[in-house]
């Protein structure tokens, strides 16, 4: 009788866990189209608004396919501290670099707590802006693909970032951030495409990742403390500095 009792107790324990109670929000339910052409920015913003307003843990799911997104801000604070953005597809920046080129960032999380990004690919489509800069013309500065600002308890796992206009991932003014199993890639002649930039942050861990861009693999800005980097494959690029 002990074994059935144990199974029952385990089932009850799982059923009452935060994971079992997580509210589910699919971007498709808000009008996102996985065709790589339709602007899905408003749909993603609506899904975030609902997840952020939830009083229980929330999961935003992005299925397979390509989703075209303009500049998007995921603003906190939220009513819960456990939001999972699960990406099975690809998020694609506008093909015309001027659309977000002066926006500083493409995807921005600000003042959030307990956000996890799992899987997926970010395609910054930065090649056009790189060509503009390398030609010596007057060009936009470019947008960072993904930034977390003034946030805490953040996890980024299994994410790929390709061809960012500027920096790929920025951690600014954050606490307790874990980046694991990410892949960052851009052409060797792409200007100022640092893989991960950490600044004014503490408790940042970067593990088991591969970064190859035209600039620093990891750049460390002022005000950074308690930064741990392990098992990093770096290059081409300027290393960690």
Task: Compile the SSE list and pairings.
Layout: H1 2-15, H2 18-21, E1 23-26, E2 35-39, H3 41-53, E3 58-62, E4 66-68, E5 72-75, E6 83-87, E7 90-92, E8 105-110, E9 115-118, E10 121-123, H4 127-134, E11 144-149, E12 152-157, E13 160-162, E14 169-172, E15 175-180, E16 183-185, E17 196-199, E18 202-212, E19 218-220, E20 225-234
Parallel strand pairs: 1-3, 2-4, 3-6, 4-7, 5-8, 6-9, 7-10, 8-11, 9-12, 10-13, 11-14, 12-15, 13-16, 14-17, 15-18, 16-18, 17-19, 18-20
GO molecular function: polygalacturonase activity
Subcellular location: Secreted, Cell wall
Protein name: Polygalacturonase
CATH architecture: 3 Solenoid
Number of self-contained structural domains: 1
Given as residue ranges, the uncertain stretches (5+ residues, pLDDT < 50) are: 1-20
Number of helices: 4
SSE-based structural type: alpha/beta
Give the class-level CATH name: Mainly Beta
CATH-defined superfamily: Single-stranded right-handed beta-helix, Pectin lyase-like
Radius of gyration based on Cα positions: 19 Å
What CATH calls the topology is Pectate Lyase C-like
Description:
InterPro entries: Glyco_hydro_28, PbH1, Pectin_lyas_fold, Pectin_lyase_fold/virulence. One of its GO terms (molecular function) is polygalacturonase activity. By secondary structure, this protein is of the alpha/beta class. The chain has one domain (22-234): Single-stranded right-handed beta-helix, Pectin lyase-like (Pectate Lyase C-like, 3 Solenoid), CATH 2.160.20. Helices cover 16% and strands 41% of the residues. It is built from four helices and 20 strands. It has helices at 2-15, 18-21, 41-53, 127-134, and strands spanning 23-26, 35-39, 58-62, 66-68, 72-75, 83-87, 90-92, 105-110, 115-118, 121-123, 144-149, 152-157, 160-162, 169-172, 175-180, 183-185, 196-199, 202-212, 218-220, 225-234. Strands 1, 2, 3, 4, 6, 7, 9, 10, 12, 13, 15, 16, 18 and 20 form a 14-stranded parallel β-sheet that branches. Strands 5-8-11-14-17-19 form a six-stranded parallel β-sheet. It starts with a helix and ends in a 7-residue tail after the last strand. The model is unreliable at 1-20 (pLDDT under 50).
């Amino acid at each position: 009788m002990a074994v059935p009792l144990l199974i029952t107790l385990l089932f009850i324990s799982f059923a009452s866990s935060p994971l079992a109670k997580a509210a589910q929000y699919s971007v498709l339910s808000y009008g996102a189209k996985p065709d790589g052409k339709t602007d899905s920015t408003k749909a993603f913003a609506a899904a975030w608004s609902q997840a952020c307003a939830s009083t229980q843990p929330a999961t935003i799911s992005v299925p397979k396919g390509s989703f075209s997104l303009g500049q998007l801000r995921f603003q906190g604070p939220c009513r819960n501290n456990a939001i999972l953005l699960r990406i099975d597809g690809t998020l694609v920046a506008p093909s015309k670099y001027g659309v977000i080129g002066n926006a500083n960032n493409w995807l921005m999380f600000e003042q959030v707590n307990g956000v996890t990004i799992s899987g997926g690919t970010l395609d910054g489509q930065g090649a056009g802006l790189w060509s503009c800069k390398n030609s010596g013309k007057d060009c936009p500065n470019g947008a960072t693909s993904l930034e977390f600002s003034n946030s805490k308890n953040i996890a980024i796992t299994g994410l790929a970032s390709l061809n960012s206009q500027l920096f790929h991932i920025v951690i600014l003014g954050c606490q307790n951030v874990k980046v694991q199993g990410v892949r960052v890639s851009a052409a060797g002649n792409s200007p100022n495409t640092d893989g991960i930039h950490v600044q004014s942050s503490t408790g940042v861990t970067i593990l088991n990742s591969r970064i190859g861009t035209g600039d620093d693999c990891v750049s460390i800005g002022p005000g950074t403390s308690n930064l741990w980097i392990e098992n990093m494959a770096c290059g081409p690029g300027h290393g960690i500095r």
